[in-house]
Amino acid sequence: MSRVALVTGAARGIGATTALRLADDGNDIAVLDLTVEACEQTVADVEARGRKAVAVAADVSNPEAAARAVAEVTDRLGTPTVLVNNAGLLREGTLRKTSSETWNSVLDVNLAGAFNMAQAVQMGMRAERHGRIVNITSTGALGATGLSAYSAAKSGLHGLTKSLAIELGRFGITVNAVAPGLTLTTMIDEMSGRTGEGVDAMTEDALKSIPVGRLGTPDDIAHAISFFTDPRSDFVSGQILYVTGGPKC
User: What digits encode the pLDDT tens for the residues 193-211?
Assistant: First the structure.
């Protein structure tokens, strides 16, 4: 019997690559993002690998939308026993320049969104006596100038990961987190555009602190997520895995 994996923020980047990796691992895939249209390419790529896939539109920061999305996935594919909370929002701003609207939106998507999705899938996982929840955090959780909202949301996600691992373990559900370093996605272009720093300059500066001498790729992150979702990782829970090319904490 196939497992069903639900990946949020799966229209592009790390989310799309993760959807394909989990399909290769034998999962049918629910591709969730803000619009169905944005998910279509990922769905097609999953189906080309011989797995079933559906596109689901939802704003994960809305608990009712999260619950509806999980109900739709369950109806169309089956109970999701793998959840990857990848949907995220990055907004730079120093303390002086961060508005309450920015603060709330970043926490709503990155932290409340993960909570909403976990809450929505947990009853199905409990019934199956099996589940894998993987939260995508960031080295930003360790703190950075101009990232107060993002850092707060991601460090909060670390605490949520550990708390849910304790709470849900007795139901056969593990909860872990993957914390990427700077990764080659469109987010780098967006960050450089907002800060005024060129992509090359940003990359060159980042490489100075990465022992392996390169930036991460979406595949690097997807491999780590795959490890946590594997049935053989049954005794691994409550962990934060930094995928950064070197030690971070």
Answer: 555 555 666 677 777 778 8
Q: Which two tokens stand for residue 139?
A: 């080295």
User: Which of left, alpha, beta for 13 (phi over 0: left; psi -120 to 50: alpha)?
Assistant: left
Residue 150 appears among annotated catalytic residues: yes
Pair of tokens at residue 243: 């995928």
**From the candidates 45, 122, 135, 150, which is the catalytic residue?**
150
Written as one letter, the residue type at 84 is V
Would you state the structure tokens that stand for residue 12, as one six-digit string?
A: 């592009």
How far, CA to CA in Å, does 178 sit from each of 7, 14, 24, 54, 160? 14, 11, 19, 24, 13
Task: For residues 42 and 191, give the distance between their C-alpha atoms in angstroms, rounded to a whole number.
Answer: 24
**Is the sign of the CA dihedral 109, 31, 20, 174 positive or negative?**
positive
Q: Are the CB atoms for 45 and 16 separated by under 8 Å? A: yes
Q: What is the pLDDT of residues 38-50, one digit of tens each?
A: 999 999 999 999 9
